[in-house]
Amino acid sequence: RLLAPVDAPLLIWTSRPTPFLSLALRGLMSWWEEEKYEAGIKWKFLEHKGPYFPPEYNPLPENLNFYYNGEKLKLGLRAEEVALYFAQMLDHEYTTREVFRNNFFKDWRKEMTLEERMLITDLEKCDFGEYHNFHKQKVEERKNRTKEEKQVLKEANQKITDEYGFCMLDHHRERIGNFKIEPPGLFRGRGDHPKQGLLKKRIRPEDVIINCSKESHVPEPPAGHQWKEVRHDNTVTWLASWTDNVQGATKYVMLNANSKLKGEKDWEKYEVARQLKSRVDGIRAQYKDDLKSKQMGTRQRAVALYFIDKLALRAGNEKEEGETADTVGCCSLRVEHIMLHDSLDGEKCVVEFDFLGKDCIRYYNKVPVTKRVFKNLKLFMENKQPGDDLFDRLNTGMLNKHLSSLMPGLTAKVFRTYNASITLQQQLKELSNGEDPPEKLLSYNRANRAVAILCNHQRAPPKSFEQSMANLQAKIEGRKEQLTLAKAELKKAKKEAKGNSDTKLQFVVEKKKKAMQRCEEQLLKMEVQATDREENKEIALSTSKLNYLDPRISVAWCKNMEVQLDKIYNKTQRDKFAWAIHMTEKDFEF
DNA sequence: GTCGAGACTTAGAAATATGCCG
DNA sequence: CGGCATATTTCTAAGTCTCGAC
């Protein structure tokens, strides 16, 4: 375990607690300048108002009807509410899926009265049309709200945030990340999820555990209700929790990313990754050596580590079958997920990966590997069925146990952080040659993009992508014409001014020149933007920026390149990375 | 060693806000 | 100044990893 980040300013000031404490107490110090608590203790004082509950169900107007088999039918309140969840989603592809429909129907029937259940036995015979239209109408109304109405709503929301969105943690007033209890609805899993469509039930105060300090004012449950439990556990960071009925998982109310608790953890994460930097050569030498081991388990571990390091694959924990979509990571790869090519496209020993990873995002890649890795893979695949585990003698527990013996704090995911950050740093060095601001930004985005590609961070292309590209192209053409015109005018003005000492004419030349240059600049800016956008069509940059790239690399780059920080980090991101912005100098090296 | 619960980070989609252009 | 594209925020699912019971 790390006690303190490697090159952190001196944090442990136990020898002079008084001035330190008073500053901290008065809120004059930033958290990254404060002393840390002993291992495992996350806070000494925690006070909050409890989570915010969504409004109760508001019954539909009397005149709205549901039809079963063409017959008008008045549903009871509970059945009506759940039916509306489904009706609201009718425009979504989800509601056409067999699994979604069956799951919904099964759970919906549980909410029905006995009579309703006797009657309604076939989802195909259900007509939610009026519910659906009612919902669409509501959405339309929401869209058409006047400025004044929007303002009123905004203020009401702000009031809720002011009251429930903050807590006191030690001497800091901190923003809470998700202080709103998740509203009920139909479960929307990603990809081919076996539980899609199941009813996600309404959470009541009786389901919620509150965590706060003993000496704090315990939050009041909503009128007429009780909390499930109030506990005072300062070894955890959550303020409230409940169990989700669909997956049986615990959900938490936690602090915002700009908080002390989250920030410290983030900082520590990058410090561990930097430690890996200085040890990675040795670790690579070792797993290369392990490829020859007599122990099959060791060899499998070595190949897995090779993939995790080279391709930034996730660890790949086992998953409970039938509970989630069928996705894999490194350790859970199956024989069917890779194909071996002795030679492909002029390269030798090529492994072709094709599998669904986290969030059912497809990982597809063709990678040349070393002979030894290739031979090992052949061996691991011998006499196996497509559905068998590739690494049958390995799991994430064993892998991480081994890693933590190589370096304290080292786990599989540290390689992702390390490789992402080091790639950004290298790319920024290679790509940036002092140019115009838009070109510098393009370089930054390209470096970011290299990381996003490494980590396989994808997105659905924006709906209006083609249109917006075409618009931009048209604008570029327009600007080009304008530039030609501007150039011609400049030439003309120069000609007129030549051999003429009239300062007025000289002045005109200057003016035309400026106009031409401005035009040129704008054209360049647009062309750069077009390139950037095209390259970014199916790549999501935000995930790596937020979770994998040591912000100090970016802050140092901005300082060196004289780029405004807000060109690469928006307000939220600057808040989250305040610690890095505060402490980073030009010479920072990851 | 194995297993499941628990706690926390990482993820892309969807909703909402912003701002730009005619 | 309104409509639309883009940027930001919100939402919550889906991972990783640790720990304690057996």
From TrEMBL:
PROSITE patterns associated with the record: TOPO_IB_1 (PS00176), TOPO_IB_2 (PS52038)
EC number: 5.6.2.1
CDD domains cross-referenced by the UniProt entry: Topo_IB_C, Topoisomer_IB_N_htopoI_like
Residues the record marks as active site: 548
Keywords, comma-separated and alphabetical: Coiled coil, DNA-binding, Isomerase, Topoisomerase
Domain DNA topoisomerase I eukaryotic-type, first and last residues per copy: 186-562
Entries under InterPro entries matching the protein: DNA_brk_join_enz, DNA_topo_DNA_db_N_dom1, DNA_topo_DNA_db_N_dom2, TopoI, TopoI_C_dom, TopoI_cat_a-hlx-sub_euk, TopoI_cat_a/b-sub_euk, TopoI_cat_euk
Coiled-coil stretches: 136-163, 469-536
BP GO terms, sorted: chromosome segregation; DNA replication; DNA topological change
UniProt GO MF annotations: DNA binding; DNA topoisomerase type I (single strand cut, ATP-independent) activity
Reaction(s) the record says it catalyses: ATP-independent breakage of single-stranded DNA, followed by passage and rejoining
One Pfam assignment: Topoisom_I_N
An annotated GO cellular component: nucleolus
Family membership: Belongs to the type IB topoisomerase family.
Its job: Releases the supercoiling and torsional tension of DNA introduced during the DNA replication and transcription by transiently cleaving and rejoining one strand of the DNA duplex. Introduces a single-strand break via transesterification at the specific target site 5'-[CT]CCTTp site in duplex DNA. The scissile phosphodiester is attacked by the catalytic tyrosine of the enzyme, resulting in the formation of a DNA-(3'-phosphotyrosyl)-enzyme intermediate and the expulsion of a 5'-OH DNA strand. The free DNA strand then undergoes passage around the unbroken strand thus removing DNA supercoils.
Name recorded for this polypeptide: DNA topoisomerase I
Organism expressing this protein natively: Denticeps clupeoides (denticle herring)
